[in-house]
Specification:
Layout: E1 3-8, E2 16-25, E3 30-35, E4 43-47, E5 55-57, E6 63-68, H1 83-90, H2 95-102, E7 112-117, E8 122-126, E9 131-134, E10 138-142, H3 152-164, H4 170-177, H5 195-201, E11 211-221, E12 227-234, E13 240-247
Antiparallel strand pairs: 1-2, 1-10, 2-11, 3-4, 4-5, 5-6, 6-7, 7-8, 8-9, 11-12, 12-13
Helix pairs in contact: 3-4
Length: 248
């Protein structure tokens, strides 16, 4: 995942609403979101190269999602980041305990942000800071830097999410994730990848022949325990290649 925006509202009838894009090379083999037979109740996409996932839901209201931290100078970790959401979704630790344990082994992975939650709490961990925190109520977003870093595309996505909260609508939320507007060069972050790549990566929805948004995902989590998750998949240049949905 390369962009996640969410509304976390404990006590509300819709306490957790998530809209997320996964950006990846189109050549990396991927299976669309599905139920994992080996873990009843786990619904997630699958990275067929390393075996992990980037976003999913699990039993007992569990939720996990991952983004990479963009740092071209950093050494590559020895383990795949995609195993992190999977470990939480397949386990039984609460979010705080899981992240406290992860703090001791985070340097085995390349830089990442991890969101984990259950029916009671939502937590975030950034491997560069090494700090886990319970998220306060509100609208939050994470891309390839720290939580709520004010990159233009993240600010646009958070504002668009806020505008939907009175009556969240699938089509409006997917439109948020399909936003291909690129900011002015002066507003782009400098993450060390060069201006041309910063331009490509500067929009919420990314298109190119080789790299771009592979999946857009919506998650609605209701106070009564129901959950609805919808994923749209894309090929090169943003070509639509399918949609799946699950309700639990």
């Amino acid at each position: 995942m390369c962009l996640i925006v969410l509304a976390w509202r404990p006590g509300h009838s819709l306490p957790l609403l998530v809209a997320a894009n996964r950006d990846e090379f189109h050549a990396r083999p991927t299976a669309a979101m599905a139920e994992w037979p080996q873990t009843p109740g786990l619904i997630a996409g699958r990275d067929l190269q390393a075996g992990g996932t980037w976003l999913g839901i699990g039993p007992d209201g569990r939720f996990a999602a991952l983004t990479n931290i963009r740092d071209p100078q950093a050494e590559q970790g020895s383990r795949s980041r995609g195993e992190l959401p999977l470990r939480f979704l397949q386990g039984n630790q609460g979010p705080e305990a899981f992240l406290n344990q992860l703090c001791r082994e985070a340097d085995e992975y390349s830089g990442f942000n991890l969101l984990v939650g259950d029916r009671h709490a939502l937590w975030h961990f950034n491997s560069h800071s090494g700090q886990a925190q319970a998220l306060p109520a509100g609208i939050h977003g994470v891309s390839n830097a720290a939580l709520d870093t004010p990159w233009p595309k993240l600010e646009r996505a958070k504002a668009a999410l806020a505008a939907t909260l009175d009556a969240p609508d699938e089509q409006a939320l997917f439109a948020l994730l399909a936003d291909a507007k690129k900011p002015d060069d002066t507003a782009l972050p400098d993450t060390g990848v060069g201006l041309d790549l910063e331009r490509l990566l500067g929009s919420v929805f990314i298109t190119s022949p080789n790299y771009g948004t592979r999946a857009s995902t919506l998650l609605f989590t209701y106070a009564d325990g129901r959950r609805r998750i919808i994923e749209r998949s894309f090929g090169p240049e943003g070509t639509s290649i399918g949609e799946v949905r699950f309700e639990r």
